[in-house]
Amino acid sequence: MSTRVAIAGLGKMGLMHSAIVSASPDAQVVAVVDPQPQLAHYVKSLGLDAPFYTSVEQMLERTEVDAVFVCTPGAAHLPTAQACVQRGVHVFVEKPLADTLDNARRMYDLVKDTTIVHAVGYMKSHYPLYQKMRALAQGGTLGRIHQCHCTVYLSQVFRSPKGWVYSKDQSGGGIIINSTCHLLFLLQWFFGHVTGVFARGGSIHSEVEDVATIILEFESGVVASIDTSWGVPGYTVEHTQMLIVAEGGSLEITDDRARLFLSRDAGEYQQGWTPFHRSDFDKAPVDLSSDYGGEGYCNEDFEFIRCCATGAEPLVSWRDGLKVQEIIEAIYRSLGGGYVRL
Amino acid sequence: MSDSNGMGSRQSWPELILSARPFLGATSRSKETALDYLVQFSRPENSAAVVTAAVRQGVGAIAPMNDTTLLQALDLARAGCRLQVCPIIPNALGYVRDATDHGMIGAGLKHLRRLSLGEMLGIGLRGLTDLRRIMVRDFRALLPILIDVEMAAFKRFQPRLVLLHGQVTDIAVALGNKEALRIFADVVRRRFGAEPGLVTNNFGALLKSLGQWRIDIDVIVAPFNPKGFLMKPTKQVCEALLKETDKYIIADRIETAGADSLKDAFQYLRGLGIASAMVEIGAAADVDSVVASRHNGGTGTSGGGLHLPQGSGGRVQSAGRGPSTESARASEG
């Protein structure tokens, strides 16, 4: 049976998920929701020929849906999730899980003892390249890992910006919660539990933080540094880079490629350099944004749809989203103070 | 060039078409290379030098997006060589960035505000109030205006081929929006006298939809490379569909981040019977090696013709896969 999906929030991510769900042979978009009624005719003429509602509650009363993709500003995630969970509807929320740690906890409490399928859009975990590199990092090929130097850059904010993304009330913060959160997910997915955070940063053009420098300590002994900014020229799309330094070599990873260096043979890898490219692993059947997120978005949505049909737990559940939110909260506390222990 | 009925006629397109991605700091090569390109090509004369060298060595066209610096470069290059321009519209990345700040409708309005009063009157609009009314009402009514806005920058190059950006094509196909593709083709033919083409990263889905919707667009730009990168849904399916289609295919993303050599890439295309390819060239000094790879690995020959793969049945025309059946019928008629 085809999974009946509603899309809540018709910004660029809502449109993207609508298109991917529509491209799936196992799902269909049966309703769309946005508080702006003037969008109704517009989205219909884009090809989204599903009933339009201005509230999730109204949609849930009038339409039979199996799952909702929540693509609203972060502050609307909790109330939207509450409405869905009350009716037993599966929920995918775009990242981050919520605008605040408190709301993220309340969201996880909604679903933790239920059979509701819940996922959060940390789509980089669905890149086969990152999956392969995580297996490599955790498999002992590199030996003991000491450090991970990371950057997240984006050319987006060069003057006072407009939009909900730059409003703390609506999105929860700035570059850290809106963009760097992808890397924070990857780091705890690669290296495990974060035990401490130290961060400095601030605003240049926005009312939220535009830049930050962050140190993360992990229970595993790894120390990660992050430099992040959405005001760096030359990064038309978000660019993430991780350089893992280990006893047996190093591993540099971006969204497109990776470079392994080993000081001696280890497992299937020989001493010296081994390059990888996303084309070595990408098997997604659809790619709607090849310059950013292509196979990640497709794999993520198709996996969620499969989980809705089978009841399986998605790769990135709200429990995982909550872990990232705890790190985000600790970083924000550290920005205004000192070292924060988790 | 299309005929007056809007039906495509027999066409061939250049064997090598210069991709504009390096000039915009986007390349299949590394991020470091992309940043170097961005710095280098922030000066239009540097882009113009590469374009001019490429054209002089036999690269037949460039496929630019609407970018002020790049357009300045094309003006400079045009002074020194005959340049065929095949625009890719719209500049989708620009829209996506603006959508972050202004929402979908706000992003569209921002771009439309670039129209002068004269241009607005020319396309039947009385001002921003009219624009906003159309914008919030109907994407289909808006689309011809968006095409006009984008094409305003390219009119001076008198393009023979206008390509719809891959992200727009693919989202339209995914959402079943056949009217968007039909309107694009119609506006490009009627208003600009050019042949419409579609860029895609979902070749299989696009071919299926074009067939079902009976939309007469003959030119498709799609990834074809030895590794199968971005050949969706799979490399095998794309290769099988290629054998059956009568569309004119221009290969894109032929290099996979240096994983394949250009010579291998051109050999692969030749085996498939694809005669036209987008190539990324980031320096005038690289032009010779790209053109040599084409000849050695070759989609074409030094004589400009194409070696037909065995069993092609002659469907491949002088420089590419053949015209659509509709086009062929029009020519026979």
Written overview of the protein:
The complex is a heterodimer of chains A (342) and B (333). Chain A is built from 10 helices and 15 strands. Chain A has helices at residues 12-23, 39-45, 56-62, 77-86, 101-111, 128-138, 168-171, 175-191, 294-310, 318-335, and strands at residues 3-8, 27-33, 52-53, 67-70, 90-93, 118-120, 145-153, 194-202, 211-218, 223-229, 239-246, 249-254, 257-262, 272-277, 340-341. In chain A, helix 4 (77-86) links the parallel strand 4 and strand 5. Chain A is globular and about 60 Å long. The N and C termini of chain A lie far apart (44 Å). Chain B has one domain (16-87, 153-332): Aldolase class I (TIM Barrel), CATH 3.20.20. Chain B has helices at 31-40, 44-56, 68-78, 92-112, 117-122, 128-137, 139-152, 166-174, 178-192, 203-213, 235-244, 262-272, 287-297, 325-332, and strands spanning 16-19, 61-63, 84-85, 88-89, 161-164, 195-199, 219-223, 248-252, 276-279. A 9-stranded parallel beta sheet of chain B has the order 3-2-1-9-8-7-6-5-4. Chain B is globular and about 55 Å long. At the A-B interface, helix 1 and helix 2 of A face helix 1, helix 4, helix 6, helix 7 and helix 8 of B.
